Amino acid sequence: MVLGVGVVLAILGPVLRRGYVLRYDLVFVPDPPFGAMVWGSGSELPRAVPSELLAVGLSQLIPADLAEKAVLAGCLALAAVGAARLAPVSHPVARVAAGLAYVWNPWVYGRLHLGQWAVIVGYAALPWAYGWVLGVLRPPAGGIGPGRRSAVGGGLAVVLGGPAMVLAAVFTCAPALALARRWRAMVAGAATLAGLTAPWLLALTNRGGALDLDERGVAAFAVRADTPLGVLGSVATLGGIWSRHAVPVGRDQWPVALVALVLAAAAIWGYALTRRRWPSAAWWGLLTGAVLGTVVVVVPAWPVGAQWMVALVEHVPLAGAVRDGTRLLAPLALVQAVGLGMLVESLATSGARALAPVVMVAPVLLLPGLAWGLTGQLHTVRYPAEWSAVRAEVNRDRVGGSLVSLPWSSFRAYRWAGNVPVLDPASRAFRRPVVGDQDVLVGRDRIRGESRDANRVAAALAAPGDPAPALRRLGVRYVLIQTDQPGGAEVEGRFVGAELVRRDPTLTLLRLPGAGSPGSTGSVGIVPVLGYSVLGATLLITLLHPAMRRRRMLLCGHFCRRDHQ
Amino acid sequence: MKASFNPLLIAVVAAAVGAVLGIVAVSIGTSTITSTNTKPANVEQPIIVYGER
Q1: Which residue of A has its CA nearest to B7?
Q2: Among A351, A380, A409, which residue terminates a domain?
Q3: Do A357 and A463 belong together in one domain?
Q4: Helices (H), A397-451
Q5: What is the per-residue pLDDT across A270-313, written as a single tens digit (0 to 9) for each?
Q6: What is the ipTM of this complex?
């Protein structure tokens, strides 16, 4: 508890106040509607399913800016507490060391820098999911059972992290169960995970057609050396993220890199010391998962491996999960956290007890850039009032038709938000479907998005002259032009025949002439309802079943013993 | 239990603390020097990039 609060205060301290943190993939908007992005009913890949539902749902209960901070704080605290509880140590300093090591590392820094809160939620869930595996392999003597509820909670959180974190969870949990030949638990875990992933699996199926991931994304998001130690050294120290902007300052310095490598090696040594404290299958299983994840991460670093990965992404559905593969370092981070906890306990109970606190805080000292909002990079902002006015105007209209957000760029950089790149908030702000650019620029490489609607709109915009007639034929009713963005003023001039609804200092809202198209105001289709029904049913079955079974067994007179088989 | 003075342990701890403080100093110094190179793309740029390798 104290550890969780301490970690949250140390990392998020400067943003724990009113206002929105907007950076890269981290976009929360005021009063978000349950739009197409929540249900995954657009033509783009349902990447925000079901994480966006959590964000929007929570924003119905508390203001969205507080919901954003609650989610960020919750996942950091759960990650620290989960790792601290998982480590097979008893000394409080050792527990803190494990929790701190799991949160305070370059992996978390990179994902927080890129605003990938859902990925961090998935990361935070891994220790809890592995706690369930340990409970299956070694049921506690008290008869409480393998902590199914926390496991289901962990599974739900893993699913929020998307396919990559689901794969990381499989890497983390499956080898141990397989080594212990706990096939029933493995099938139960797989079925639970499949049920929890139903919303985006069904949304993906409903979208239809090929996934058509841009193969250039494999190279663009591949692991890179962010230390002088090369790719392997960078990965061993939980770095290697694709964007050089998301690398903590100092990692390119030899002293920092070497000490980080020594600490990683010491953590692995510490993990070796835990061998007698865990069942053999659990120990080897987690290690196997970490090795598997690491292999997937480093493969694209070599030309042959990159070719394999391209072929995989092209031909195997959902293989895009291995793009931006450093997310799969999460099991290795768990191994190192557990190992560091064990190492600190060994030091604390041996003659070198003075070293224990030093090793405990070493991750913090090695990575001071994570403290205090990434040393000032995280800050809160407020949306200009015109955003609310435009949203109200568009959401008031009952006539169908989508909204196109211009200028044509997936990212924005607002002066009022510190000019930090951020995904276009318009996609989340309106009830009706919003079509915007899905391509992303990595350096000078344009990585093509997967939205067919976006491709059609891009083609209409690429044609010379007034694009309004072509957009109208595509079912577009509104055009929102963010005039403070690069190219915004120029694109406004192209819409000659459109009706001007509002012109504010940074936003211009146009309505295209015509009746609009019925039925596309953001109504929920049957498939999202079905997906979330499966998710809900999975939760009910997994959470209620043990209680019902216990009651039945109590009536039969042999409570508890069979329940732990 | 009587506390004992172990010069080797003290030396090891002092070296570790010194190394860590040195790293912190290097990190902060590097942060100051390279802060202009690690800023994300700003609005003046013709395109807004997600990141750079």
Answers
A1: A352
A2: A380
A3: no
A4: 426-429
A5: 999 999 999 999 999 999 999 999 999 999 999 999 999 999 88
A6: 0.83
Residues of A with CB under 8 A from a CB of B: 24, 114, 220, 224, 242-246, 249-250, 252-253, 255-256, 259, 351-352, 354-355, 358, 362, 365-366, 368-369, 375, 409-415, 419-421, 440-443, 484-487
What tens digit of pLDDT does each residue of B1-53 get?
444 555 555 565 566 666 656 655 555 554 444 444 433 333 334 478 999 99
Total-model pTM: 0.88
> What SS3 state is found at A484?
coil
Which chain B residues have any C-beta within 8 angstroms of a chain A C-beta? 6, 9-10, 12-13, 16-17, 19-20, 22-24, 26-28, 30-31, 34, 38, 40-43, 45-53
Minimal CA–CA distance to A345: which of A286, A288, A276, A257?
A276
What is the predicted pLDDT for the residue at B25? Answer: 59
- pLDDT attached to residue A564: 41
Inter-axis angle of helices A163-179 and A330-348, nearest 10: 60
pLDDT of B24 reads 54
Domain limit, last residue, from A326, A348, A380: A380
Strands (E), A372-525: 380-381, 402-406, 411-413, 421-423, 434-435, 440-442, 445-447, 476-482, 499-503, 507-511
Q: Locate A440 and state its tokens.
A: 């992303």
Write out the residue range of the structural domain in which residue A442 sits: 386-511
Least Cα separation, residue B50 to chain A (angstroms): 5
